[in-house]
Design goal:
Blueprint: E1 11-16, H1 19-27, E2 36-39, E3 49-52, H2 54-57, H3 67-73, E4 78-80, H4 84-99, E5 105-109, E6 112-116, H5 127-142, E7 146-151, H6 154-161, E8 169-171, H7 177-183, H8 194-202, H9 208-212, H10 216-223, H11 226-233, E9 250-261, H12 264-284, E10 287-298, E11 303-309, H13 317-331, E12 338-350
Parallel strand pairs: 2-4, 7-8
Antiparallel strand pairs: 1-6, 1-7, 2-3, 5-6, 9-12, 10-11, 10-12
Length: 358
C-alpha cells in the first residue's frame, strides 16, 4: 500500500547527458569517444571542470574539480573552453521540444528541467510515452541524448532520472515507490550529502528501510527542520508543484565538517571549493551577482553571516574566492573552531554571453 495519495501528478525529470561535453563532441567529431573536459585550462590558477564527458568520468573526473587534478587523473584528457552562447541556444531548442507537450516546465539549469504532463497538450495520457518521445526528439533533432525519470512527484522523478544514465529512462509508479525508497542507499537520496549520510550511518541508517524506522520527532531531533523532509521523502511524499516561472533569489553552497576547523588555511581551502560550486551554479542559471555572503557556524553552534555588495558583478571563480576569503579574514579570530562554512550569492542580473567563467 502506497503512502502517496491520489490524485497523482505525472512528473518527468529530464537531465541532459554530460551536456556541455556532448555538445562539443557533437560539433567536433574529432572529440567523439575521447576523454574531454569543458572548462578552464589547467595552466595558472582557477581552472575548473564545468563538465566532463563520460569517457573522462571513467578516470574519476567530475564537475567542479580543479582542472589540474583532472589532468593528473587522465594525462591524455582534452580541454576545450566553454561556448555558453551555443549551450544556451541548444537549451532553447530543448525547451521548445518540451513545450510541445506542456507549458508546465520548471528549468533547473540549461540542461535540466521538471515537466508536469498530468494534462499534456497532445492528449497522450502516458507520462512514460511522453518521456520516450521527448528523448527521441532530442536525439533526432539535436543529436544529443537525455535521461528521464518519470513518477508522481519531483523528488522521485529526479532520483529516477539518475539511475540509468546515460540515455536512461526509468519509471517509478506509485505502487512501487515504497519498496523502491526502502532499498535505496541513503547516499542516493537527493538532498542528503556526505556529512549527513555519515551521521545517519552512525545512527544505523544505511538505506531507506532503516530511515523509515525513525519517527519524525527522532529525525527532527537529530537533523532539525530537514528531519521532516527526510521523514516525508522516504515515504515518497513530495507535494511541491512544478513552477514554470520560478525566479532565483540566491544561490548557495555550504559544508559541515567532520572535524572542527581551527586553521585559517584549512578554511580558505574549503571556501575555494565552495566557490567553484556556487560559480558553476551561477553559470548554469546564466546569472551574474553583485552580493556575496559568508556563513560561519562555530563549534558552539553560534551562527554568523557577513555580506558585501560590489558595484560590478563578480566575474569568475577567482573573484568569488577573493571576495569570500577577504570576508573570512575580517571575521575569523585566531583559535576559533569552525564546524560549517557556506557561501551565498545574490543581487542577480542576467549574464552577458561573454561572462568570464574561469
Amino acid at each position: 500500500m502506497t503512502n502517496v495519495l491520489p490524485p497523482y501528478r505525472k512528473i518527468i525529470h529530464i537531465d541532459m547527458d554530460a551536456f556541455y561535453a556532448s555538445v562539443e563532441q557533437r560539433d567536433d567529431p574529432r572529440l567523439s569517444g575521447k576523454p574531454l573536459v569543458v572548462g578552464g585550462l589547467p595552466e595558472g590558477r582557477g581552472g575548473v571542470v564545468a563538465t566532463a564527458s563520460y569517457e573522462a568520468r571513467l578516470y574519476g573526473i567530475r564537475s567542479a574539480m580543479p582542472s589540474k587534478q583532472a589532468l593528473q587523473l587522465c594525462p591524455q584528457v582534452l580541454f576545450v573552453k566553454p561556448r555558453f552562447d551555443v549551450y544556451k541556444a541548444v537549451s532553447v531548442q530543448i525547451r521548445e521540444i518540451f513545450s510541445r507537450y506542456t507549458d508546465l516546465v520548471e528549468p533547473l539549469s540549461l540542461d535540466e528541467a521538471y515537466l508536469d504532463v498530468t494534462h499534456d497538450k497532445p492528449g497522450i495520457g502516458s507520462a512514460l510515452e511522453i518521456a520516450r518521445q521527448i528523448k527521441q526528439a532530442i536525439r533526432d533533432e539535436l543529436h544529443l541524448t537525455a535521461s528521464a525519470g518519470v513518477s508522481v512527484n519531483k523528488f522521485v522523478a529526479k532520483i529516477a532520472s539518475d539511475l540509468d544514465k546515460p540515455d536512461g529512462l526509468k519509471f517509478i509508479g506509485p505502487s512501487t515507490i515504497p519498496a523502491f525508497m526502502e532499498q535505496l542507499p541513503i547516499e542516493k537520496f537527493h538532498g542528503i550529502g556526505k556529512v549527513t549520510a555519515g551521521k545517519m550511518r552512525k545512527l544505523g541508517v544505511f538505506n531507506g528501510a532503516d530511515l523509515k524506522k525513525l519517527g519524525e520527532d527522532e529525525l527532527t531531533g537529530n537533523f532539525g527542520k530537514a528531519g521532516k523532509f527526510y521523514y516525508q521523502i522516504v515515504r515518497g511524499i513530495d507535494d511541491r508543484p512544478v513552477q514554470p516561472f520560478r525566479e532565483t533569489k540566491s544561490l548557495a553552497a555550504e559544508d559541515t565538517f567532520a572535524h572542527d576547523l581551527t586553521l585559517q588555511e584549512e578554511m580558505v581551502k574549503e571556501l575555494e571549493k565552495l566557490s567553484m560550486t556556487v560559480h558553476r551554479r551561477l553559470i548554469q542559471k546564466n546569472l551574474q551577482c553583485r552580493t556575496i555572503t559568508l556563513k560561519i557556524k562555530y563549534s558552539n553552534f553560534k551562527l554568523i553571516t557577513r555580506s558585501r555588495s560590489y558595484p560590478a558583478p563578480l566575474a569568475g571563480t577567482e573573484a568569488i574566492q577573493t571576495a569570500v576569503i577577504q570576508l573570512l579574514a575580517e571575521t575569523i579570530q585566531e583559535g576559533q573552531r569552525v564546524r560549517l562554512l557556506g557561501i551565498s550569492l545574490s543581487n542577480f542580473g542576467n549574464a552577458p554571453d561573454q561572462l568570464k567563467m574561469f
